[in-house]
Amino acid sequence: MKRAVIIGDKILWADGHPPGHPLRPERLQNTWDMLQAYDALTVANVRIVPPRFPNETELTSFHTRNYVDAVRHLSQGTKNVNPARYGFGQGDNPVFPGMFESEALKVGGGLVGTELLLNNEADVVFNFAGGLHHAGKAHASGFCVFGDAVIAIQKILDTGRRVAYIDIDAHHGDGVQNAFYDDPRVLTISFHESGLYLFPSTGFEHEIGTGKGKGYSVNIPLLPYTNDEAFVWAFDQIVPPLLERFAPDIVVAQLGLDAHWSDPLTHLSLTTHGFETLFQRIHDLSPRWLAVGGGGYEPTVVPRGWTLAWGVMSGQQFADELPATVTDGYSPPLLHDAEPAPLSDMQREQARNGASEVVKRLNKLLALG
Ligand SMILES: [Zn+2]
Q1: Partners of residue 125 on adjacent β-strands
Q2: If we measure between CA atoms, which residue out of 149, 365, 97 comes closest to residue 238?
Q3: From the CA of 167, how far away is ligand 1's center (Å)?
Q4: Cα 170 to middle of ligand 1, angstroms
Q5: Residues with catalytic roles
Q6: Quick one: DSSP state of residue 321?
Q7: Cα(259) to centroid(ligand 1), Å
Q8: How far is the CA of 166 from the centre of ligand 1 (A)?
Q9: Sequence-ordered list of residues with C-beta below 8 angstroms from that of 109, at least 6 positions apart, any chain
């Protein structure tokens, strides 16, 4: 049985993005409540560990000092910093009170998890509050203030180890890719809806890294309607051979849930069954792994998806009937989706063909065949 740690504490969702913002803290709270309702955090191989605040050196292992200072000042309500200079403003990246603390804690959760993995005190850690994969060195982007995955990976690299980063969020993991674009010690693999249709408009096959990092950035852009079958097929074609060749010491995986068919922000067509298969694949392929959260904007999907992820990590199977205490507000009242994604035959074929084309192009680019 794997030693599984979950980074959880109500301080992680006490504050956060303001009401009306898609990345609202209730996503985390509801996930935690569902895990508690399933009694999923009390078995012998499981530990709950709270996050800690990262220090300046850790934050500036990725971000510029100017940016870290700017986030702190904006968070305190100072008027002498221009938010637009750092990517903040109305819309995706609003400034909110306590932003520095709330977002830094998500980084600290990843660092606590990384330390447990490095000290061989855990086999798998789930920091479901993390996964903010769009944050830049000196700017906020796509709801992301601090790059928790980048900072965790940096900490692992400092010990001389190699990291594979796997990102199944519907959006391209541009922040993580950019941070290690010329670095052969980090293999980044991002599955996402094609940048032709979705933010951040990057993540095409030809983005394979630069200099010594050439061949260590891998992008699998998928067409709208990509469903469980096409996604999992593409995953199986690409990820196992790459990981075998790269032989990472630790896998960091971003488990955003916005590829679900009902997500209001994207156009992919996964179900909870597809997610669970992907979680299991990553689990089986990883010597040790730090799992982080990410996107997911359909409130009835996020707690169920991450509960299934935790089931895979901690070796627990949960009854499909949701515990009575969480049934309110969740429809249908089952852990797994009761229905397949609502797709026409033509859409299913588009998904299959799209995945097949992108795998063909990647095989050529990366010489995987
Ligand atoms: Zn996303």
Answers
A1: 5, 290
A2: 365
A3: 10
A4: 5
A5: 134
A6: B
A7: 8
A8: 14
A9: 7, 12, 51, 127, 129, 130, 148
Residue 227 has what DSSP assignment? Answer: B
Residue 216 clears pLDDT 90, i.e. is over it = yes
First to last CA, the chain: 34
Cα of 363 vs centre of ligand 1, distance in Å, is 26
For the chain, give the number of residues: 369
Q: What is the mean pLDDT of the chain?
A: 96
> Which stretch of DSSP H or E encloses residue 221?
strand 217-222
Conformation bin of residue 364: beta by default, left when phi > 0, alpha when psi is -120 to 50 = alpha
Q: Which helix (H) or strand (E) is 189 found in, with range? A: strand 186-193
Q: Which of 16-20, 249-253, 279-283 is predicted least confidently?
A: 16-20
Q: Are 324 and 295 in contact (CB under 8 A)?
A: no
Q: How remote is the CA of residue 40 from the centroid of ligand 1, in Å?
A: 26
Dihedral pair phi/psi, residue 174, rounded to 5°: -65, -35
Report the separation in Å between the CA atom of 245 and the middle of ligand 1, taken as the mean of its atom positions: 28
Residue 337 Cα to ligand 1 midpoint, Å, equals 20
pLDDT in tens, 130-163: 999 999 999 999 999 999 999 999 999 999 999 9
pTM of the model: 0.97
Q: For residues 312 and 15, give the distance between their C-alpha atoms in angstroms, rounded to a whole number.
A: 29
Residues whose CB falls within 8 Å of the CB of residue 191, separated by 6 or more in sequence, listed in order: 167, 168, 220, 222, 231, 234, 235, 259
| pLDDT value, residue 327 | 67
Place of tokens 């330390």: 115
Compute the distance between CA of residue 369 and CA of residue 360 in angstroms, rounded to an integer: 9
Q: Would you say 250 and 287 are in contact if contact means Cβ atoms under 8 Å apart?
A: yes
Distance, in Å, from the CA atom of 34 to the CA atom of 248, rounded to the nearest integer, reads 32
Identify the structural domains of the chain with CATH numbers, from first to last: 4-366 (3.40.800.20)
The token pair that represents 368 in the structure block: 């995987």
> In which order are the strands placed within the sheet that holds 217-222?
46-49, 4-7, 124-127, 289-292, 250-254, 163-167, 186-193, 217-222
- State how far the Cα of 352 lies from the Cα of 346, in Å rounded to an integer: 10
Which residue from 242, 256, 345 is spatially nearest to 295, judged by alpha carbons?
256
**Which SS3 state, helix, strand or coil, does residue 125 take?**
strand
CA-to-CA distance for 167 and 130, rounded, in angstroms? 12
pLDDT confidence of residue 325: 84
